[in-house]
Design a protein that fits this description.
The structure holds three protein chains of three kinds. Chain B is an all-alpha fold. Chain B is built from 13 helices and no strands.
Chain lengths: ~325, ~300, ~325
């Protein structure tokens, strides 16, 4: 089947809280081709996790989703409960941060990995589920015997691998990884990234990698999208976007991850002033302008659209 | 900066009130409470205290066992006393005993809980064993023994309830103290050189007080019910007119068989209403106390 | 760096054992006044325990800690203040900013002008105008501002050493630079020394003068930042550097497995089971043998640059050593 695996068109997600509606995602348009690895970078309040949740409809009841979400030819917001069940785990699966509360603490990890297989009937018996579970654990670098462990008996890195194994249980087409390496040590992070890389190539997985760590995305993804205040502000090839971003926010964010060995950053920590905006309380015009070192008076007037610049690169800034 | 501190205290009280106001159950409870507290305070205006005296009642020419009428709004009892008077004056005793006993319970329980949780070690061990001992002893026999030994007066009843009810408060407070003790800001205070008293006063107490208040409010109905039970069993103060005593006398003198509903229903409903009111208010305070800690992201 | 200046903090042969688990197993390090030392390590390396021992929150099993020449007892020294990893958790949600910053002064019983000192500390930490922040509660300010409040609360005590445990790890990436610049500014302007515990090598590159790498309870390499991050001697440091995503010049050496349990420290060189150098088979037979059987021991106190590694030490003896 040709065409993108995942297609988002003008996606908006609004939460309904006791203090009124909060627009977490405001008009995101994005395509993910089959077999591609796309990185989505942004900080707290930018809407990236909301976006991830919206794709598989994992958001709370009262959330309003507008726009199109098409995954493997199916329109996600229109699916009935049966269709949604069929979609989850098999078309798209999500890997969360491997904190202790991502796994059920009173069930063995093997049972948790086998669960989606049994629910979606991708295996014909419990024995087959067990075999597949052990196979998956081996594939993610853990001993098959680990299936009998409880989450608290595993280290952070091991739990993360279990979550990856669980996400792969039903051979999904799309893997959404939401901050999978945050809170992991450097070496463990490298191990997990390397694993995701191998799995992606092995199974021709489409990967949507969400994180605030821009540098990690350059390692794991071919294309990079940057989110700010609920919108995409830049898209481009991963390494290029990191090294030489078009949008001032991208540049500011990238500067927070200094290249070791480069004299320009030695003893010169670089960052942006102010704070990331809160979703319900955005500045007028371009939401980044209060913090932007290149802000001009026109920036207050209207929010810029994504403009093209060079090959496959777009940025939402009037300076582009 | 005391003016800053006062301003903040006022602001925090206003915040709490706004939150409380938005809870329907809390406001209903508060309304009921207000009615009964007003009644208790205005007792002299609502009823003549002499009506509680059987000699006076006889002299008045009250009939016995009279159902409600214009001159006796809740009728009379077996010795011609006005039931309305007993209801109004009884509310005073029930509320007062309930509140005073709770103050004692919460005081003992909080001190034990805080010391036990904060100091830890052997002190904690000893205090917890004492607490468990009190928890294990069946309450009613203990209360009866103490009441009979100490004599039947309002103050003794308060003492008995206080001394037997503190263990659950102590356990609750201790658990909360243990949680707060682990928090990073306590580490920070220690690293600034703070010692025991400062940490307890400035960090532990403020983060435990909400829970204590909620727990106290929920303990009042228990105290009231306990007083009622003791009075019903004949251990109450013979000279006071509590609702429990009214129920006891009604029961003992056959009000049930006579179907003299006006005698036992008011006191029974009164207890029910007050207990319900405190429970509603206490639950609301609990809800306020907990999300507060979570809200402060 | 000023030659002839005596060290601010000296930790010698520190051991902190919890039963069989040897969280700190013979670590020595030294912090000079006016310098930023980055203590780099992963979880399980013992770095947090080490810092807690310096802070006085953890009693060492053996070894000495000297503050300005005097042996430090378990009781807290106000010249050492902390900056925490979680600024939200480090602030009492029921205390206003003013009280949080003034707390240390009140504990010490300072009779000076509290308001002025608090104002100055907040301003120095970048919160201006300071009065605006006095009545605010932690939940009313942002994460970065909370960390500044923590820093202000520490600076108001006029410390000579700041212990910063992952000071920017829980903050948004775009604001990290400002907080790091603030910390470096405090060093440059006030002659403060900072011991930063982190696993982020980029942070070390940004603000640290020296780096000490910790593995399984010991310092395995130490030296000036440029040296360590440009030409690491210890295979562990090399591996760590190679997997930093921004480092493109090095081939990533992803180590297998995780840091071993602290109660089962490998024999010989404690890194040998995961050592890529040993596994490459390029080491001469006798050196490889030493890695398996002999413990290179911890990096000694006062070494300007050293690595606890047999192959590294073998090559070092053939070149003249530099000392500070």
């Amino acid at each position: 089947m040709s065409g993108p695996l995942l297609s988002l068109r003008d996606l908006s997600v609004t939460y309904h809280t006791s203090s009124g509606p909060v627009p977490a995602v405001r008009g995101v348009t994005l395509d993910l081709a089959r077999g591609e690895s796309l990185g989505l970078a942004g900080e707290s309040g930018c809407g990236k996790s909301t976006l991830a949740g919206a794709i598989l409809r994992l958001l709370p009841e009262k959330t309003v989703i507008e726009g199109e979400i098409v995954l493997d030819g199916r329109s996600v917001p229109d699916l009935n409960p049966g269709g949604l069940r069929a979609l989850r785990w098999t078309a798209g699966a999500i890997v969360f941060q491997g904190a202790l509360h991502a796994l059920n603490p009173v069930r063995r990890v093997g049972d948790q990995i086998a669960e989606p297989m049994l629910i979606h009937e991708t295996v014909s018996s419990e024995r087959e589920a067990r075999q597949r579970t052990e196979g998956l654990l081996g594939r993610v670098g853990l001993l098959g015997a680990r299936a009998d462990s409880y989450p608290h008996q595993l280290s952070g890195g091991q739990r993360q691998r279990v979550l990856i194994a669980m996400a792969l249980a039903c051979d999904p087409l799309l893997l959404i990884a939401d901050e999978p390496t945050t809170a992991l040590d450097l070496m463990v992070q490298a191990q997990v990234l390397s694993l995701l890389d191998e799995l992606q190539r092995e199974r021709d997985l489409t990967l949507l990698f969400i994180t605030h760590d821009l540098s990690v995305l350059t390692y794991a993804c071919s294309r990079l999208a940057v989110m700010y205040a609920g919108r995409i502000v830049e898209v481009g090839p991963a390494w290029q976007t990191f090294e030489d971003g078009l949008h001032p926010y991208t540049r500011g964010l990238a500067a927070a991850f200094p290249t070791i060995g480069e004299t320009s950053s030695r003893m010169r920590p670089s960052g942006l002033g102010g704070d990331p905006p809160t979703p319900g309380d955005l500045p007028p015009g371009c939401p980044f302008h209060p913090r932007c070192p290149l802000a001009r008076p026109e920036c207050r007037d209207a929010e810029p659209e994504l403009r093209s610049s060079g090959e496959n690169r777009v940025a939402a800034c009037i300076l582009v | 900066m005391t003016s800053l501190a006062m301003k903040r205290r006022r602001a925090s009280a206003t915040r709490m009130w706004t939150q409380f106001r938005s809870s329907r159950q809390g406001m209903i409870g508060l309304a009921i409470l207000a009615v009964f507290v007003a009644m208790a305070l205005a007792a002299p205006l609502l009823s003549d205290m002499r009506e509680l005296n059987p000699v006076f009642a006889r002299a008045q020419g009250n009939p016995q066992w009279a159902p409600p009428s214009e001159f006796a709004p809740l009728g009379t009892d077996y010795i011609r006393r006005s039931v309305w008077a007993q209801f109004v004056w009884g509310s005073r005793v029930s509320l007062f005993v309930g509140l005073a006993a709770t103050v004692l319970t919460v005081l003992i329980g909080s001190v034990v809980g805080i010391v036990s949780g904060f100091v830890g070690g052997r002190v904690d061990g000893v205090l917890m064993r004492v607490t468990e001992w009190f928890l294990v002893i069946p309450f009613l026999p203990l209360a009866i023994v103490l009441a009979s030994v100490l004599g039947r007066s309002v103050w003794n009843i308060i003492f008995v309830i206080g001394v037997t009810s503190w263990p659950s408060t102590a356990r609750l407070v201790r658990a909360q103290v243990l949680t707060v003790k682990q928090r990073l800001f306590v580490d920070r205070a220690r690293s600034l050189g703070a010692r025991g008293w400062h940490i307890v006063n400035r960090h532990i107490l403020p983060n435990v007080s909400g829970l204590i208040l909620a727990n106290a409010t929920l303990a009042v109905p228990i105290s009231i019910l306990t007083e009622t039970t003791l009075a019903f069993l004949g251990l109450g103060d013979p000279s006071s007119a509590s609702w429990g005593k009214t129920l006891e006398e009604a029961f003992v003198n056959g009000a049930m068989t006579r179907n003299a509903w006006w005698y036992f229903l008011p006191a029974g409903l009164g207890i029910l209403a007050v207990v319900l009111a405190f429970t509603l208010v206490g639950r609301t305070l609990e809800e306020i106390a907990n999300p507060k800690l979570a809200e402060r992201r | 760096m000023h030659p002839g200046v005596s060290p601010l903090v000296e930790i010698e042969g520190l051991h902190v054992h919890f039963g069989d688990a040897r969280a700190v197993d013979g670590a020595s390090l030294r912090v000079m006044p006016g310098e930023v030392l980055a203590l780099v390590g992963e979880s399980g390396s013992g770095k947090t325990t080490l810092v807690r021992a310096i802070q006085g929150l953890q009693k060492p099993t053996a070894g000495t800690i000297r503050m300005e020449g005097k042996v430090q007892s378990i009781f807290h020294d106000p010249a050492v203040q902390m900056v925490f990893q979680d600024p939200t958790g480090a602030l009492n949600p029921r205390q206003a900013v003013y009280e949080i910053v003034a707390e240390g002064l009140r504990i010490r019983g300072d009779k000076g002008d509290e308001v002025d000192l608090v104002k100055e500390a907040l301003a120095r930490a970048g919160l201006r105008p300071p009065e605006r922040f006095f009545p605010l509660f932690p939940h009313e300010i942002s994460g970065g501002q909370r960390q500044r409040v923590v820093i202000a609360g520490a600076m108001v005590m006029e410390p000579r050493l700041l212990l910063a445990d992952e000071p920017v790890a829980s903050l948004d990436a775009s604001i990290r630079g400002e907080i790091l610049a603030l910390l470096r500014g405090l060093v440059d302007d006030h002659g403060l020394a900072i011991l930063v515990v982190t696993h982020d090598l980029g942070l070390a590159w940004n603000i640290a003068d020296r780096v000490a790498v910790m593995y399984l309870g010991r310092i395995v390499e130490t030296g000036p930042t440029e040296e360590i991050l440009d030409d690491p001697q210890h295979p562990y440091t090399r591996a760590l550097l190679s997997v930093v995503p921004e480092t493109r010049e090095m081939e990533p050496q992803i180590l297998k497995g995780e840091i071993p349990d602290l109660s089962r420290i490998p024999s010989g060189c404690r890194f040998h089971p995961r050592c890529p150098l040993l596994q490459s088979g390029t080491l001469p037979e006798d050196v490889a043998q030493r890695c398996l059987s002999d413990d290179p021991g911890p990096v000694p106190l006062g070494a300007a640059s050293a690595a606890a590694c047999w192959p590294a030490m073998a090559t070092e003896t053939s070149t003249p050593t530099t000392s500070d």
